[in-house]
Amino acid sequence: MIDLRDTLARLERPEYIGENRCTPCTAVNVVLSFALAAAIGAAASPFAGALALGVSLVLVRLRGYLIPGTPTLTRRYLPEPVLERFGKSPASAPTVETVTPAELASVLTAADVATDGTDELRLTPSFRARWDDRLSSDGATTPGRDAVRSALGVDDVDRLGDASFELEGRQRVGWVSPAALAADAAAAAELEDRIDGWDRLEADERRDLLTGLRLLRDRCPACSGPVVATTERLEHCCRRPRIAVRAACDACDRPLVDLVVAESMAATWLELAGVGTADGSSAAG
Ligand SMILES: [Zn+2]
Fold first, then answer.
1. For residue 197, how far is its CA from the centre of ligand 1 (angstroms)?
2. How far away, in angstroms, is 213 Cα from ligand 1 center?
3. Ligand 1 mean position to 243 CA, how many Å?
4. In this predicted model, what pLDDT tens digit does every residue of 22-75 receive, in sequence order?
5. Residue 228 to residue 125: CA distance in whole angstroms
6. Dist. CA 71 → ligand 1 center (Å)
7. 95 CA → ligand 1 middle, Å
């Protein structure tokens, strides 16, 4: 007699199910299961179609995939925005979406915040001094709702945690550490005077600009220790690989930047910030 439970267990592919199940791949396979069942139902009989559907769905349930090689298929044919919607992000880190490295460079150089020397964006000494002055005068307190309200230009801000907030009662935003938030709050106060049209920027655009700017810091906003940046390639079964960029203080270990950028953009982002990619890590700034 066939032991059904044993048979099912042997069919299981733990690497593709449970926690490891990939939502986009599963969705694609369920759609394929229905398409296959409809074709069999039309060609043979409705019963054969229903049977095929049942078997296909059981296979997807047990194995994660019906068709071998789905991850590659999904990656190739499902557009990135669709994959994004499935919400299985490779990391919880925010991505930089509204500002390209070139835009960041042109906005910051026009505002005399940074200079675009030998392919590397550097803070101007005057901006660096103003930023640090603001940090040391405000730095003792962790920025709260008011700081976030004025930094992002949003009226309604609720605090959720140390460095996480809810904007307008719907959008949740977070900083990697209170130190990162302090850096952004101080920088935003300076940028307001220096960038024409800062008032008209959306909260997301401001956050992306501030994140890019934070990547240019080579000193910790909390303790002035040296900042070390590292990069890591994030592989994902059905999505194009992305690059995680992290920067943290070497003295106090506070994280300052933790973001994910598309691989196609990573080289320019890192080049701008003076972060080496050859060996995977190097000092920033
Ligand atoms: Zn530090």
1. 32
2. 17
3. 24
4. 777 788 888 888 998 999 999 989 999 999 999 888 888 887 777 766 666 666
5. 20
6. 41
7. 24
Q: What is the pLDDT of residue 160?
A: 92
Q: What is the pTM of this model?
A: 0.68
Render pLDDT for 135-188 as a digit per residue (tens, 0 to 9): 887 655 678 899 999 999 999 999 999 899 999 998 899 999 999 999 999 999
First to last CA, the chain: 69
Output the CA 225–ligand 1 centroid distance in Å. Answer: 5
Domain boundaries, the chain: 4-85, 101-283
φ/ψ (deg, to 5) at 252: -110, 0
Taking the CA atoms of 260, 135, 138 and 230 in sequence, report the sign of the dihedral they define: positive
User: Six-digit token pair at 35?
Assistant: 């398409």
Do 159 and 143 form a contact (C-beta atoms < 8 A)? no
Output b/e per residue, 173-207; b: 16+ Cβ within 10 A: bbbbbbbbbbbbbbbbbbbeeebeebeebebbbbb
User: What's the CA-to-centroid distance between 219 and ligand 1, angstroms?
Assistant: 8
pLDDT score, position 233: 83
The Å distance, Cα 161 to ligand 1 centre, comes to: 21
